[in-house]
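Shipment paperwork, digital attachment
Item: protein structure file
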Amino acid sequence: MNRPLVGALATAVLGAAALVGSAGSAGAATGGTHHKPKPRTHAVDFAGTVALSNCSGSVVKMPTSQENDPALVMSNGHCLEGGMPGAGEVIVDQPSSRSFTLLDKSAGDLGTIKATKVAYATMTDTDVSLYETGSTYAEIEQKYGIKPLELATEHPAKGAGISVVSGYWKKIYSCSVDGFVPQLKEGDWTWKDSVRYTPECKTIGGTSGSPVIDTTSGKVAAINNTGNEDGEKCTVNNPCEVDENGNVTVHKGINYAQETYGIPKCFGAGNKLDLSAAGCELPKPSGARR
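Attachment content:
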């Protein structure tokens, strides 16, 4: 996984990291009446992203979120301050006072917002953590001029242009969705229907939790979480792909994300988690009714 970073490791990786430029805006093509206009793309910047102590993240909203709802911060499950959840483990409503550094569009530090709890976190089927903060969206916008990123509600499309925005490194990686992986296995964990990037997105440790933004819609399509570093098979930091027939393949140097389009179905009024809501397919805590 694009693992959390500490100390000297962060310094070493920073020296070797190559920035793939931020996605710029592109207007419709003007090639005459015989050419279809290209889809307009959104200029992707750092507004709404956050830096964690060891990972990246973003302030996110559901399509139904209201301005006075408590703001949510999304990162990876493996970025939790208490350590990585085990396979099959689901965490809900766990108190937290974690701080997040909020960035402006140019990656400048605006200030901090603080969690009140981990609303949801798991590394089973997906790799996500959602923190509830003590600030509303309206309060964040009033104080910092920052709006949240919105989670898309449709499955990402193969070939879609994407930008992976890392608040930790203050870098944007731009590429496309190369395809989808029925099962992605890494160590003890298995993720379902993962996004595979084209090779241009050379994400590194510390980019974990970065929002993956669809450059056509401007919405969050997935959350960055891992890549095969050494060409090993199914080991930590070396995920392997498993197809519908059980065939295992390894793609050294290729990076991955977990889809987020199903998450909005699991949050109701007031941004409250409701794992029993119709259409919610996030894993539930052991013992919970399905």
